[in-house]
Amino acid sequence: MGVFDGFLLMSDFDGTLAGRAVVSDENRDAIKYFQNEGGLFSLASGRFPSWIGECSHFFTPDAPNVMLNGTAIVSCDGRTTIKTSPLDREATENVSRVIMNECPRLDHVRIHTESEHIAFRRGEELDFAILKGDLLKILYYSPAECSEEYAERIRRIAGSRYLITRSWENGIELQNAGSGKGDGLKYVKKTLGERARITVGAGDYENDLSLILAADIGYAPADAIPKVLRAADRVTVPHTESAIARIIEELEKQNRRGTL
Fold first, then answer.
1. DSSP letters of the chain?
2. pLDDT at position 256, please?
């Protein structure tokens, strides 16, 4: 029986597990140790599912991954889609036109399917029909100084049908309500049953809030944004100091003491 039997650790990638898309040797070794001791590790990221394969030299997830900010739940290797949350194409195209009109400093909008995206610059006619396949999320690019204001404005325009979060200071994302990272974690936990009795979520930005709140133990690196630091159950070192390795160390100490 391993130290981490029954644990699922789901981590955001950029700004939590990795810095500049590089996973430290310490984080890599800690994940391998966590898995060897019975734990399950997976990602919750805004990136495409196919990108998981590019991480194979750092780590190999052994539980389903929550990609495109929760709108696609995919297999350990990212090759098989388990569940998606597609947007209504016509309704989302219409609301995007209103958003671009009401937020005049938005530079461009990027529409994502499970495997590709297309961008429309301000002044270009939005035509979502160009992309084949289900639309999963929309990304609006905002100047940093007005992104928080614009995120609130977009929430009012979009209404309860959509989830609006910022994924970094310039990126405002729209997806179906009930399709965030936290919803993905809940789905994966239900699927895994006793193999994921204790869920641990780690993230640093606004789109990670639902992940942290849905987890049994929510972690934030010390350099996370204030909203995330307030929401987290625990705060660890900055992501640049191998935050995931520190989380695994802390969990092991507490579990061995029987204080989890």
1. --TTTTEEEEE-TBTTTEETTEE-HHHHHHHHHHHHTT-EEEEB-SS-GGGGGGGTTT----S-EEEGGGTEEE-TTS-SEEEE-PPPHHHHHHHHHHHHHH-TT--EEEEE-SS-EEEEETTSPP-GGGS-S---EEEEE--GGGHHHHHHHHHHHHGGGEEEEEEETTEEEEEETT-SHHHHHHHHHHHHGGGGSEEEEE--SGGGHHHHHHSSEEEEETTS-HHHHHH-SEEES-GGGTHHHHHHHHHHHHHHHT--
2. 86
**Contacts of 25 by beta carbon, 8 Å cutoff, 6+ apart:** none
Task: Please write the tens of the pLDDT for every residue from 130-157.
Answer: 888 999 999 999 999 999 999 999 999 9
Please identify, in words, the CATH class of the domain defined by 89-176: alpha beta
Q: Tell me the two tokens of residue 222.
A: 């010390």
Give CA–CA dist 16/2, Å, rounded: 25
**Contact assessment for residue 71 and residue 49, using Cβ atoms and an 8 Å cutoff:** no
Domain 7-84+180-257 has CATH 3.40.50.1000: yes
Domain with CATH 3.30.1240.10 in the chain: 89-176
